[in-house]
Amino acid sequence: MANNSRTGNEDVLVTRTGGLGHLVLNRPRTMNALTHGMIAAVAATLDDWENDDGVTTVAISGAGERGLCAGGDIVEIYHDARTGGSASTAFWRDEYLLNARIARYPKPVVTLMDGVVLGGGVGISAHASVRVVTERSRVGMPETGIGFVPDVGGTFLLSRAPGELGTHAALTAAMVTGADAIAMGLADHYVDSAQLPALVGELAERPAAAVVGRYGQTAPPSPLAGQRDWIDAAYAGDDATAILARLRAVGTPEADAAARAIAGKSPTAVTVTLAALRRAAVLGSLEDVLNQEYRVSVRALRWPDFAEGIRAQLVDKDRAPVWAPAALADVPAARVTESFAPLGDGELGLQG
After folding, report:
1. Partners of 189 in the beta sheet?
2. Reduced to 3 DSSP states, what percent helix, strand and coil does the chain have, rounded to the nearest 5?
């Protein structure tokens, strides 16, 4: 028998059926964009279920047909940034703690990465132990397009993708397919979207591994993995200007499109993102990377490009941001260095 309950936040719905605890992000009009209240509700429910022997598996999905989650509520962050940004830093702190919590959760967490899964949606799903994508999945970290840097553990995941696939995805802010997500290590299982209701139904009665094994299919070839040759060559190294030049020299439509995409993104965000990926690759744990990402996020809140990017993409929607500086070569080295500097008493403080 199902037991439905509220979390105190109508934007997160909770269902208990058999051994399954099911969390549904419930803001379909905003593609389930995350608010601070939603983060708190999910965290509190996971706390309750950890020591509840009646819950053997947790599932996380999104309401509506458009996707699991389009990320954090960026417009809310935009307005906060213009008045000091204290609410945004508190939001990120709790969000990153939740990302780490999901990664270390002692019970199977099955995330249904159906439809659009962006930014914070990746953070709430791609650190889980059982990650399901479908033929409708479109997964991405769009931050460089709004003058920000991939966070929510995104630089941990992307820095560990095969070759330079993660660098390509991070700098271009491109969305990838479900097959690409599996090839990149962002997901595990490919399931037909029409089968998801049946899969969730069986999770109430059977172990998660057995259920996803029953419904999982062989993923189609990854379009992105098939382009490893030019991607690995073009994105090597630590110099964003050199990467852009190499992309322009490849001579394929895909590489040309990547070059155009990066050239349109915030030069500051692209430069710091590349540095963050390289640093994340040598950090030892997700927690270490989240600590680093928190430092960068707090610093990015003061960049003119962050507010300008959100304005252009989501507020005025003119899609014509004016970046400062306007060119990769003009990004000061000091801005990159200061992005990673310790925050003193303001550190996130996760222990790996």
Report:
1. 132
2. 50, 15, 35
**DSSP sequence for 89-100:** HHHHHHHHHHHH
pLDDT at residue 145, rounded to an integer: 96
Annotated catalytic residue, options 21, 67, 72, 123: 72
**193, 216 in Cβ contact below 8 A?**
no
Domain residue spans of the chain: 2-346
**Predicted local confidence at residue 4, as pLDDT:** 53
Q: Write down the catalytic residue from 62, 120, 153, 178.
A: 120
Matching CATH number, 2-346, of 1.20.1600.10, 3.90.226.10, 3.30.565.10, 3.10.20.10: 3.90.226.10
User: Is 151 part of the annotated catalytic residue set?
Assistant: yes
- Catalytic, 72? Answer yes
- Active-site residue, from 11, 80, 95, 151: 151
CA-CA distance, 90 to 112, in Å (whole number)? 27
User: Is 300's pLDDT higher than 50?
Assistant: yes
* 120 is a catalytic site residue: yes
Q: Are 174 and 140 in contact (CB under 8 A)?
A: yes
